[in-house]
Structures are given as structure tokens and as C-alpha cells.
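JmjC domain-containing protein: C-alpha cells wanted.
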Amino acid sequence: MMRTVTIDKYFEKIAQHIVCNATLSNQHLHIKFPKETFASEIADFNLFTSLPELLNLYKGVVMVVGKVAIDETEGLRDRFFVPMYRALAYYQQGATLEFDFVERFFNGLQKFIVKFQTFLQLPTGVLGKAICYASPNASGFPLHFDAYYNFIFQIIGKKKWILQYNTNADLPLQHYDFHEYPYLPTELEMYWKKDTKLPLGDTDNLIIEELEAGSMLYLPRGLWHQTEASDSSFSLNITFSLPSVIDLLLAALRKKMVPYTIARNTPLKINKEDYKCYANLLEAAQNDLQLSDLIAQLGVKHDAYQQGNKTFHAMLECLQTKFS
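Answer:
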């Protein structure tokens, strides 16, 4: 789906097509803005147009992705982290570079994420972050789907996005790389539809979106996708992790049960009497659950994966500073 709009009220234009029935749409959307819109009109976006300048400002670790990583690890991995001062050499060898949680180093970008979140009517507890991708010609990311909502702003160059709607797992709760198949994480396997075609075996339903400077692509969670840059490309992804109903219910019920001593016990085994006691505790918490309890949980950050990932990056950066 492609729409052409002007810069005027672009926030409202995006929200108008994406916010749907008190959630975000499950349909992707490609909107075309004037070529210089992002670099000239949005704070700090102009800093993501030069790799040397970005590497000078960014103080975190950089992920190297692609054939270069495969060759260096003798096929064991297709990506790994390097200090920012080593990243340029890998880019020149054809690797895509990923700069995660980049908003930590750019105040204007942080403000943009908050503003964007407001226009999308997202709860205050939603975790928003920015990822910058620098891709030389013919590089990109292999097939996968994400558990969060992506807004991709193409700043420089062109990039091909190959999309396919996910018939294997509706509304997945976790990221999954296709190269892992047939292995499936235990929870994902519980709702994976084994009678459906795999994405690479269903070429009739592929969707090709060609992004160029000024393009914004909305990518809902769970959509299969892979990318390939047709020339040197810079793009900025704003991602939002929204809590699922499961997250809200479990957190609210936990809060109801925590005050009870029995709920804080650490049993080594469970007999029938224990089971009855625990079941009664859960039932009491469920009966006490109010609408306000769930609404309150919308203001709490629930994404342990992204929060853990952010902590992991901070730890790597500390080591980088210590040993550089």
C-alpha cells in the first residue's frame, strides 16, 4: 500500500492510517514524503547521513551483519558486535552496520520518539527506541519477524524490503529468525501453525516495497521481512514494544498475590493440598481484579527482552571503554 502526502501534519497522517480499534494496525503501510523531509525537518535526523560522522558521535557497540561475519566466524554466526572504531572497516568490506539504542546519544531523537509515541496514542509504559542501519550496496538482513512495531525512515539511498504476511504464527510474542527453522522456541511452538506454507516456499504472496529517501514504512509485528540495499543506504527505525494482554494480566495478578506470604514461598515440591491452596489464591486474585488494575499496568514497562538488551549494550560499552 503506497500513499503520497506532504510534510504538513505528517504525524497525524501516519497515526490516521495506523491507529486502529485501540491498537496498531496489522497491515503494513508505505508513505512517501518529500526527499529531504527527515534530514531537514526532524531533530538529529541530519546526523544519520554520514557514517564517519555517526561513528564519531555514537559511543556504543556496533553490530556487524552479513557475509563478512559468516566468513570471519567460519559459518558459525552471521552477526557479531565490534567497537565503533572497528565498524567502518567491516562496512567497507560489505557488511551492514546496526547501531542499537542510538537515541541514548542524541537528545533530539529521544524527544522525537516521545512525540511520535504521543501522536500514535501509545500508553506511557510503551518502550520506544531507535536503531540506525548503514548498509552498503547489496547488503541487508536475512528473513525474520519481530515482536514489536517498526517505523522505518529511509534517510539516504534505496533499500528493498521483501515482505510476507505471517500465516505461521499470528501476533507472535517473540523475535524469530527463519534460519533457525525447524527449531522453534517452546512458547512459539505452542501456536505455530504447522499446516501452513513456510515463507520461502510461498513466493506468490511476496510483497516488494522499494524505499528511497523520504519513504516511511510501517511494519507491524510478526510480518516476515528481509532487506537488501541497492546502493549505500541509511535508515532509522523507531520501534515500539507494546505489552500483550498476557503481560497485563500476569503483572496485575502478581500485584494482587504478592502481599500473601504463601505466594512468596519457594516450594521444592507440590502436593494436592498445596495445589488447592495455590489455586484458591489465584482465584481470589482474579475475583479481586479490577479494570483500573489493568489500566495501571499500561503505564508500566513490561518488555524484559528489550530492557535486558539495553542493559547488555551498556555492559559491552563499559568493557569497550575499559579496554580501549
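Residues 2-243 form a domain with the Jelly Rolls fold (CATH 2.60.120.650). Confidence is low (pLDDT under 50) at residues 1-8.

Cheers.
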